[in-house]
Amino acid sequence: MDITYATIPLYEQVSSKNIVKNFFNIVIFFLLFSLPGYRIVSHHNHDTYWLLALLCELWFTFYWGLAISTKWNPVDYETYPERVLKRVGELPSVDMFVTTADVVLEPPIMTINTVLSLLAVDYPTHKLACYVSDDGCSPIILYSLMEASKFAKLWVPFCKKYNVQVRAPFRYFYNDALAFDQFKYSKEFEQEWRSMKDKYEQLSRNIEAVVQKSVPCDFSGDFKVFLNTKRNNHPTIIKVIWENKQGLADELPHLVYISREKRPNHQHHYKAGAMNVLARVSGLMTNAPFMLNVDCDMFVNDPKVVLRAMCILLGPKSEREFAFAQFPQVFYDRLKDDPFGNQMIVLFEYMARGMAGLQGVLYSGTGCCHRRQVIYGLSPENIEIGPKHSYNTNAEIIKGKIYEHEQELLQSFGNSNEFARAAASALNGSKADSAENIQKIIEAAHEVAGCGYENGTSWGLKVGWIYGSTTEDIHTGLIIHKKGWRSALCTPDPPAFLGCAPTSGPSSMTQQKRWATGLLEVLLSKNCPIFFTMFYKLQLRQCMAYVWVLSWGLRSIPELCYALLFAYSIFTNSQLLPKSQEPAFFIPVSIFCIYNLYTLSEYFATGQSIRAWWNNQKMARITTMGPWLLGLFSVVLKILRLSETVFEVTKKDQSTSSTEQDDVDASRFTFDESPVFVPVTALLLVQLIALATALLGQQPPAHGDHGSGFLEVFGSLWLVLCLWTILKGLFGKGKYGIPLSTIFKSTGLALLFVSLLCR
Ligand SMILES: O=c1ccn([C@@H]2O[C@H](COP(=O)(O)OP(=O)(O)O[C@H]3O[C@H](CO)[C@@H](O)[C@H](O)[C@H]3O)[C@@H](O)[C@H]2O)c(=O)[nH]1
Ligand SMILES: [Mn+2]
Q1: Which one, of 280, 304, 253, lies nearest residue 133 by Cα?
Q2: Which of 19, 44, 54, 514 has CA 20 to 30 A from 301's CA?
Q3: Are residues 645 and 690 in the same domain?
């Protein structure tokens, strides 16, 4: 350890508080609040719809309040990876997890690139191990990994020798021009580069060939185990593809393939279940104190990621404070102007940073480095400061004292003595005593990856990734924050990880529906953040931020109601908003103007265009009242025990667009038979009928001067503009059109609504 470095910080918290922004936040809040205020004081109407409008507006105000509290003081963390090596005597080991679940939706070449980029990170390789969980139980993945590991033996040294920035080969070789520039300087580089490129192309062809055949080989040798397996019915398959037997610093990290046991009558808990198996198998094999996890499409874009995570997680203060370091989700090959509104740039910029300024950013499932002790259930108050730390000579040892007796350990962690021992040593913070020979413990590993292993244990309840929600990430992070841990957001530039955003209408909708479902499952469970603030250590404003996120599904109801109220007021010729003669007229008008300018400024501030803003406004309406509404339904069905919620994997496309026309085509919204399009289409039809009624002068006479007026028509018109994508879909052909069956259902719903009102 270098003395001069002992006092230099490894990270710094940077605040990006914006006073002007906060001022407008408050202005909007008061304006929002004055609208229900107006409704209460103006006595001319006491109809039910007036009350309904009041409730919706109170909700909007409340929800805006949650948002401001969350966004008030955004921070993020600047890390200094070059210092960490000098600061700590010895770096800790890190287990890296990749999950994949379906070779069709998640092309193996993508998974392989993610794995290669992980194997090549700048970190002592004998301290790393990479575990790939395959929930699809596909021999193609195993085959691809085996091929990739051969390629990695050349690729990793190449990357390190030339300090390659992007270590996922498909991205590195994507733009040859960058390399050509360097050829001038080094003939040797040119040769190696060309040979590397050839080898990568060969690797992709081999994998592609196998994907085409769909069966890689004759089920012999390593592949025999796949004989007669089905996705949802097969024994555990674990293969150590590469083992750095001597623990040499210049060898490749260990690479292990895991397909956990699945049986038809056993719940497998989707990704959370897969993560828990990864935690256990790695616990037996390498037992690193830190675990970095990524989705199969999220390759490493900054080779210093692990060092960066260590900047945050090491050091005596951090060890008592930070449970995990989260990198934001950023997407590559982003479609221009975010046509599907799913790039989440503004969301990460303001909400994630805002939470980082409270108790800590959410765990968002990928690009996150966890402390194994915390995943095993350690709370800050169970920390015992021991003598010197094994991996960090500068810090004292953190001892997790939560289990006194071996019996308790077995009960919580399951009936494997080997695993209990490993878990105890992880909790004690003793040096990751990785098994002498990982092949030897394969047997124990099979046991802990079995589908019955978790029965009666704390896995998924108190230990590991938490079950019961299709957004296992937010759920697990919440349980961690509840114990009083903090978390840090790390946003290096260029981004640490890059992944795929859904590239079609339906897959985007499916993802949104799953999120709304999973979030609401948490809100309505016993793990509701409100209880955690009342009885545990979740901070109040952190709780408010969680409620903001977790109620996405709930938002569909007030939004839909309010949208329908505009149509209702036109149909019945009754007043919803103040008239232009009333002083209160300025309230909705200024909310509309200020809110839109405010959100627009967020897009400009993050370097996006006005188009991107408008696309996101449109998609926000469609998402809230389409997939989020269905997400709400699926949670209701789950509560009524009529059906279970499922994790539908998002399709990941590597964009192949080469021309401008391709881009235009890719940006066009596509539809399918999914019910998510029914409510929004019905809503659009209702608004159209309402507008037609107003235009044709078919409204009934108003009561006194309390009829509908300019604002009601304007609101309805604005909604039609927001639902323009759907309107185009009504007339589109093929996948660009809304299927007839959906149109029928929506028309039925719309007519039902209209006829009920016009009785
Ligand atoms: O049964 C399953 C289902 C999914 N996965 C994996 O989970 C990851 C995320 O799935 P994806 O379909 O890409 O979902 P996204 O909506 O893109 O994922 C976001 O939202 C999820 C929670 O809904 C988080 O788990 C993810 O980390 C986060 O990126 C992928 O690697 C999958 O292979 C499994 O391992 N097993
Ligand atoms: Mn994904």
Answers
A1: 280
A2: 514
A3: yes
506 in a domain, yes or no?
no
End-to-end Cα, the chain, rounded Å: 82
ipTM of the complex: 0.99
Range of the structural domain that residue 532 is part of: 19-72+528-757
> Does residue 393 carry a pLDDT above 70?
no
**pLDDT tens for residues 576-587?**
999 999 999 999
Name the residue with tokens 């989700």.
Answer: 329
pLDDT reported for residue 659:
66
Q: Does residue 337 belong to any structural domain of this protein?
A: no
Ligand 2 centre to CA of 581 (Å) is 51
Residue 359 lies in a domain: no
Tell me the sheet residues that pair with 400. Answer: 383
Residue bearing tokens 């921070």: 75
User: Do 592 and 476 belong to one domain?
Assistant: no
pLDDT digits (tens, 9 = 90+) for 332-342: 988 899 999 99
Average pLDDT, the chain: 91
Number of the ligand closest to the Cα of 110: 1
Q: Which residues contact 673 (CB under 8 A, 6 or more apart)?
A: 739, 741, 742
| In a shared domain, residues 95 and 67 | no
Within 6 A (CB) of ligand 1 lie 99-101, 106, 133, 135, 270-271, 274, 295-296, 365-366, 470-473, 511, 514-515, 518, 647, 649-650
Using pLDDT thresholds of 50, 70 and 90, give the confidence band for residue 400. Answer: low
Ligand nearest 294 Cα, by number? 1
pLDDT, tens digit (0-9, with 9 covering 90-100), for 603-617: 999 999 999 999 999
- Residue 222 is assigned to a structural domain of this protein: yes
